[in-house]
Amino acid sequence: MKKYIFFLILLSIFAHSKSQDLPIYKQYMLNSFLLNPAAAGQSNCVNVNFTDRHQWLNFENAPNTQTLSVFARSSLFKTKRETYHGLGAIIFSHKNGLNSEKGFQLTYAFHSQMLMDDNSREKYYFSLGISFVGCVFSFDGSKISTLNPDPNIDNSEKNLFSPDFNAGFLIYGSHFSLGISGTHLLKQRIGSYNKEEPYFPRHYFLFSSYKFDLPDRKTAIEPSLSFKMSEINFVKADFNLKLHLGKLFWVGISYENALSEQAEGGNAINFFTGFFISESFQTALAYQYGFTRIQNYNFGSIEFLLAYKFCVKQRKY
Prior knowledge:
- By secondary structure, this protein is mostly beta strands.
- 30% of the residues are buried.
- A hairpin with a 4-residue loop joins strand 13 (268-276) and strand 14 (281-290).
- It has one domain (2-310): Porin (Beta Barrel).
- The chain has 1 helix and 15 strands; from the N terminus they run αβββββββββββββββ.
- It starts with a helix and ends in a 7-residue tail after the last strand.
- It has a 14-stranded antiparallel beta barrel with strand order 1-2-3-4-5-6-7-8-10-11-12-13-14-15.
- It is 4% helix and 52% strand.
């Protein structure tokens, strides 16, 4: 009975939070590796990104997430169609009330040139990526308070390790990207006692972007679109627009539209800004305002990003 109550509480937390996945940040336009493992090794640099997100400011025990990601590309052999191998890793920590997650993701991606535009000499690639994810789910039952003592409630701390896999496919060039990815491919159950326990449903992500250079060659507009889908029948779309002002500064706006009643988070609007401290180091900030009833009790959500890239050799696609 105690085990049943624990997993029932754990399921309710997952169902009403963003903890069903490795959290997908609102600045995935800067770090698509968080969205798709096939992006590992997409650029010819070592990329290091740190993201810190705090949801529902001024809300007690609100969700907060920190992620550190690293990925790079290596060339094992040369052919007429360039082939690369990408490696990446993610360490993440997520906390939401009594529930917390800590884990890692190890990624391998295969990249190969598809074609080259004879006029612009731009190269286009495809990549396939797969990730192993190890996560420890914790639940602190000692913080549960009831009006009357209940012997059926276990007030101890529970920990559960869950291995899983993510996979993705990506087509990209210097101005264009189109990818699809999936998480929780093993559909691991929350616990190991019987087949009736709830499981983590598979989630699928579709993302596409294109960067348009304006005539002055100093400004560019980059619209993008993403869809998030799940086996539990919810669909959510993000409509994003990013404006590059020279090589040092950019601003953006994004609208999240819940296309089904089951979509988590509801509708929201996001504002972005970022700038390059140096050629290799940039910082960015995002603010989210939700159009849901819970917005009446908080000041929105904020997300901070630091990104550094070390390029051994510059290479044009």
